[in-house]
Amino acid sequence: MTELQNYDPSGVGVVGRLFGLPFDQDSANLIVLGVPWEVTVSYSAGTARGVEAMLNASSQLDLYDFDNPDGWKQGIFMPEIPREILDRSDHLRADAAKIIDRLSIGQSLDAELSQLLESVNQGCKDLNQWLFEQCDRLLQQGKRVAVVGGDHSVPLGYLSAIAQHYENFGILHIDAHADLREAYEGFKYSHASIMYNVLKLPQMTKLVQVGIRDVCLDEVNLIRDSNGRISTYFDPMLKQKQYAGVPWLETCQQIVSELPQNVYISVDVDGFDPKLCPMTGTPVPGGLELEQAFCLFREVVNSGRKVIGFDVVEIGNAEWDGNVAARTIYKLCNLMDLTWRN
């Protein structure tokens, strides 16, 4: 690419390109797919448009990364955000809202709303299949893939594709919520059910959750009865260890030791302290500082494990949220790249 040959990484980033980089889908090794979908959000909407907020903020980042100074050279590219996905999300979101409103006043669904629920579930299933096909095709081409959302239901199709390419992998899950509810509010593919659904993939052998602080009894019981397949580091317990003087680095090393060799990282930004992403869909007090999360990701790299993919989701439709999300994504791009050099 002539444009790449003339590219100045210290120059002005081009708006509309992820991190202002000059790559295209052919020249990039890492493809970041934006999925503007938030059909089942149960609190605040806006995350479907958080993908664009992140993209707009990303060109303002300086590219020097302390972990991987030349990380941008791997080639990072984000295709155009699919408008048809956003339009479909908006349409189904209006239907889902009617269902949520009925349930919130303690009433059961009538025949019309039951039909709407079936339609919403089918639409979410179709989204999963679309993303599966996109990711599977890219993985077959030898590309690395990341997904940006949208609500946390989004990456299920990608994880299903990962399961076709890796016989064994674990997930490092950063979140305020365990997301282990079965068909929350009747939605089979709810944002609150993503990890419940992922547990159906036999190739996913270990789920390690960090920062969880808003959880229901059924989820606690599921974790307890998982025979070690799920390890959850609840935020209050993490804070208590820090108050007792246990170094965060030591805690990170313990967390990482539970993961298998192949690691997928799933980041719901509400896992961070809400001052970092205040417009996320379901903010909860507490959570990780950004550098705490980066330290944890860094220990995955230092352990010799391989990052096979990642997602960053629940990004709020606001400039600051987009800024923080862009920095999180860029850090994960560069750390992931390091694990592919070994």
How does CATH name the architecture? 3-Layer(aba) Sandwich
Helical content band = 40-55%
Low-confidence stretches: none
State the end-to-end distance: 27 Å
Number of domains: 1
CATH class: Alpha Beta
Q: What is the chain-wise order of helices and strands? A: HEHEHHEHEHEHEHHEHEH
Largest sheet: 8 strands, parallel
Q: Can you list the strand order of the major beta sheet?
A: 2-1-3-8-7-4-5-6
What is the CATH superfamily? Ureohydrolase domain
Instruction: Decide which structural class fits the backbone.
Output: alpha/beta
Instruction: Calculate Rg over CA atoms.
Output: 19 Å
CATH topology, anyone? Arginase, Chain A
Can you offer a commentary on this structure?
With 342 residues, the protein is an alpha/beta fold. It has one domain: 3-Layer(aba) Sandwich (Arginase, Chain A). It is built from eleven helices and eight strands. The protein has an eight-stranded parallel sheet, sandwiched between helices. α9 packs across α10. The longest helix is centred in the middle third of the chain and has 30 residues. The protein is globular, with a radius of gyration of 19 Å. The mean pLDDT is 96.
